Amino acid sequence: MARGRSPSQKTRILVWGRAAGRCQYHGCGKRLDGDLVTGDLAKNHAYLAHIIASDPGGERGHPILSHRLADDPENIMLMCDPHHREIDDKAKIARYTVDVLREMKRANEVRIERLLENPNATPAHILRIAAAIGDNETAVPLRDCIEALRPEFTPADWRPIDIKIRDISQKDSDPSYYPVVIDALRKKIGREIQGRFADGELEHLAVFGFAPIPVLMELGRLLSDLSAVSVYGRHREPTPGWVWPNDREPLEFTCNRGSPGPKKVALKISVTANVADDRVIQVLPDEPVSIWEIRSSRLGASELRNKDDLSSFRELVGKTFDAIKDQHGMDVELLVFPAVPAACAVEFGRAWQHKAHAPFSVWDQVPELGFVVRHEIRTSIEASTQKSPG
C-alpha cells in the first residue's frame, strides 16, 4: 500500500510552532530553526516524524490510520536527526510505541505552553521533601507543584530536587529517627542546593514539604541564608493541592510576652491548635520559666490559606526571637513548643539567624507522653557536629 500524503504547509507550521522549533524527544530540546535560516537543505537536521507511520508498512504503521493521520499535526513530532533515527530503529521499536511517543509529544507541548504563557515568570527549582509521619506515608505530586508555581514562577527544571526520607526503617516516634533523618537532610541540602546557589545555578527555590515539624524547622534553618525561597503549604479544601487559595480574611499573628527574669523561656506557637501552659509546665516541673506565645487569630489545620499570611508569620517570628534575646539575653535557654502547619515550620526555621538569635530546642507532642524534645537548632558550626536529642 502506498505512503500517505506529505504534511501540508499548515500542518508543518502547527508542528513547528507547538514545539517552539526544538526537538520534542524527551530531554533533548535541541534548537532546529537554524536549518530554516540557512536555507541549506543539505544541512537540514530537522524532521517531521510520524508517530503512526504514514506508510502502513513502516514502523508503527497501521492499515487504516497511516493514511488517515498522515497530515494530522497530532500525529507528527518535530525531531532532530539522531532522535528521528532513534525512534525508528527496528531494534528499539518496542520501546517507542505509539503511546510512548504520544505522551512524549503531549508532555513537551504542555511544557512549552506553560513556559511561554507568562514570559516574565521567574524560573524556580522545585524542592520536595517527603517523610513518613507516624504511620502515614506521603508524597508531593510534581503536577501539583507546577500548578502552585503559576503564574509568578515557572519550573526552571522539570526534574525536582527530591529529599525522600520515607524509606528510613525507624518511625518518627523512635529516638534514633531524627539524627538519621536530619543528617541526611543536611547532606542533601549542602550537596544539591547551597553550592548551586553559590555558583549561580539556582535563581529561586520553591519548597514543598511534608515531614515532621522538627525536620521542617531544620530545613528552614538550612535555607535561612538564601533569600530567594518561596514556601508552599498543602491545602485540603476546596480541592486538595498546593495552590494558595487566598480565599479568607487575613490571619493576624500576635506575640504574647512572658515574664522577665528566668533564663529558661518556653515559646508556644499556637497556629493549628492551642498549646496550653499546663502542657509546657508538665515537662518543666519546679523550674522557673517564662512562657511566651506566638498565636494566630484563628486556630485550625486549614486556616493558613493566604500566601501573605505566611510572610506575616515569618516576620513576627523574627521579631519574637529579637524580643526574647533583648529581654532574657543571648544565653537564654529557649524551648519551642509548636502546633503549626508544615509551611510555618519551614518559615520558623528560616526566620532564625545563627549570629543574632539564641539556640533553641524543638519539642514534639507524643501521645501519652506529652511534649518530648526532638531536635536542637544551634549555630552552623555547632549544628554540623551536634547529635539530635533522644
The unreliable regions are 381-390
CATH topology group of the largest domain = Rossmann fold
Q: What number of structural domains do the residues give?
A: 3
The major pleated sheet works out as: 6 strands, mixed
Mean of pLDDT:
87
Write the element-wise H/E pattern from the N-terminal end onward: HHEHEHHEHEEHEHEEEHEHEHEEH
> For this structure, what is the CATH class of the largest domain?
Alpha Beta
Helix content: 25-40%
Shape assignment: elongated
Radius of gyration: 27 Å
**Beta-strand fraction estimate:** 15-25%
The CATH architecture term of the largest domain is 3-Layer(aba) Sandwich
Instruction: State the helix count.
Output: 12
Count of β-strands: 13
Structural description of this entry:
Helices cover 34% and strands 20% of the residues. It has 390 residues and is α/β, with parallel strands linked by helices. The chain has three domains: 9-115, no CATH class; 121-232; 253-385, Rossmann fold, CATH 3.40.50. The strands form three sheets. The protein has a six-stranded mixed β-sheet, sandwiched between helices. Strands 3, 4, 5, 6 and 7 form a five-stranded parallel β-sheet that branches. The radius of gyration is 27 Å and the shape is elongated. The relative contact order is 0.09.
